[in-house]
Amino acid sequence: MGQETISPDSSLLPHLRHGPNGIQLIVKGKPFLMLAGELHNSSLSSARFMADVWPTMKAQSINTLLGSVYWEMIEPVEGQFDFSGLDAVVRGAREHGLHLVLLWFGTYKNGMSTYVPHWVKRDVKRFPRVHVLDETASGRRKRTLEMISPFSDECVTADSRAFRRLTEHLAEMDSEHNTVIMIQVENESGLLGDARDRSRVAEAEFEKGVPSALVDHLVAATKDLHPKFIRRFGERLETVAKARSEGKATSWEALFGPGDAASEAFTANAISTYVGKVAAAGKQGYPIPMYTNTWLNFDDPAAAAAAALDLEGLPFVAGGGAQPGIYPSGGPCPHVTDIWRFNAPALDFLAPDLYLQDYEAVCRDYTAHADSPLFIPEQRRDEHGARRVWLAYATYGALGTGPFGIDTAPEAIGREYKLLAQTKEYLLNTPPSKRFGFFFDELPQSGPPKGQEHWTKMFGGHLEVIVERAFVFGKAGPGGGMVIQLGGEDSARFLAVGRGFNVHFKSHKDDATFTGILDSREKEYVEDTGELRTLRTLNGDETRSGKFLIMPNEDPDYGGFPIAVTIPARTCIAEVEAYWICESNEDM
């Protein structure tokens, strides 16, 4: 996975590049930071509808939109393709200076096949369906789903043909412009309602056991497998490796365990093989970055229950569950990503749709492989979600984040994106070791805070940067932002961006007796030149007399305190330099 099958003039196309500043998306020869949002499912189907959306997105500093392309729309009659609607929206984006990530809603969308053409839906003999088992009062009974079986050779051939025709068309009409910079292949693939397909063809495949090529790969790549794969299946893999050396076949249960575990791995193998074939066909037509997204699971029922409580009793459908079939079984969740990576090498990476899970834990899960960039194609678009994008971009080097439903409520995200747009050159030109992001949620009415209250990172081997909530006399509010080291590895100068936090420093040199702020200046963005220039010098109340830099919120809560010692936020960008004093006992 991550191998680029790009033509000799690939530098002219969007592509991924590994470098000292992490894995970056290159557009028109330069690193590009996607300040993205995902549209509602039907928005991109109409150029007239999008006419009012484009300028609204631009006003919120959004530079990339994720939108769907339906198989049923481009091939309503088998073999007859119509790209007129797509061309109109691509031209609309181009005219407004926006980029697109197209979402191919082919065979699979959210564990179903509702976006396939009518001629596919009606022909169940040519395009057989998935069958699942239901428990009824009279016993177990098979039920037909609106999901094409991943064992349908006819459907994967038809889907691959349509997707390749789409990408070939994009190559013809957009390769000079790079309006479309990535493509998502299918959407939240997997099986809902059961852990695996129970159709006759699927049962026959299950009995054949794990394909020998997959077993050989997992055994050979043991040291590079995902930590969650090893945690679940590592001991079984050791046993299987020994059996393989004796020439024995491997059943799904032997490698992955009985019941749902084996069924989920079997489903992951089938669906990743299917999606891999579609992706490979698309790459042949237009070799730009491609990925697929994940409807995430929870690793245990307690975590799922805790997330449901956070929603205060609202319907809990997007967050997944703890059992395959409650979340789409076989989708590229962390514990089966190694199966996906093996079967779908044309995909450049796998991406999580991140709504309710632990945000940072998921970021770690999807960057666990050294060649895997982070991209979050779906997440919350509210303030809760907006605060977390700082962690994705600054700590984990995300290519972008894509809050879902951005066309109907972009303001919370736009507030953060405007700051990211003003400081993106610093972010893109700084290695991961010299930057980090953080966030603080609303404080509860009673009890301790739920999230992390202290974020720290060591620079230059001794200088610790410590971030906490902004100090006020009343109730501290939410916040989020990033800190970037300026200059060399030993530099004590930093750029602080965001709201609602304090920054202070501690030298860990053995003889350091004092650490404080040497200089701090509020910066403003100059749109004409793209530079940050000093607006004012900060000291006194704004640094608590050199103890810490305050990056306040727009409306600090003084709690009735009569002196406004914390002023409201203005530019939300500051440059600060620390210093320390080293004195021996004889000097003091």
Automatic annotation (TrEMBL):
<protein>
    <submittedName>
        <fullName>Glycoside hydrolase</fullName>
    </submittedName>
</protein>
<feature type="domain" description="Glycoside hydrolase family 42 N-terminal">
    <location>
        <begin position="56"/>
        <end position="206"/>
    </location>
</feature>
<dbReference type="GO" id="GO:0009341">
    <property type="term" value="C:beta-galactosidase complex"/>
</dbReference>
<dbReference type="Pfam" id="PF02449">
    <property type="entry name" value="Glyco_hydro_42"/>
</dbReference>
<dbReference type="GO" id="GO:0005975">
    <property type="term" value="P:carbohydrate metabolic process"/>
</dbReference>
<dbReference type="Pfam" id="PF18120">
    <property type="entry name" value="DUF5597"/>
</dbReference>
<dbReference type="GO" id="GO:0004565">
    <property type="term" value="F:beta-galactosidase activity"/>
</dbReference>
<keyword id="KW-0326">Glycosidase</keyword>
<dbReference type="InterPro" id="IPR040719">
    <property type="entry name" value="DUF5597"/>
</dbReference>
<feature type="domain" description="DUF5597">
    <location>
        <begin position="414"/>
        <end position="549"/>
    </location>
</feature>
<dbReference type="InterPro" id="IPR017853">
    <property type="entry name" value="GH"/>
</dbReference>
<dbReference type="InterPro" id="IPR013529">
    <property type="entry name" value="Glyco_hydro_42_N"/>
</dbReference>
<keyword id="KW-0378">Hydrolase</keyword>
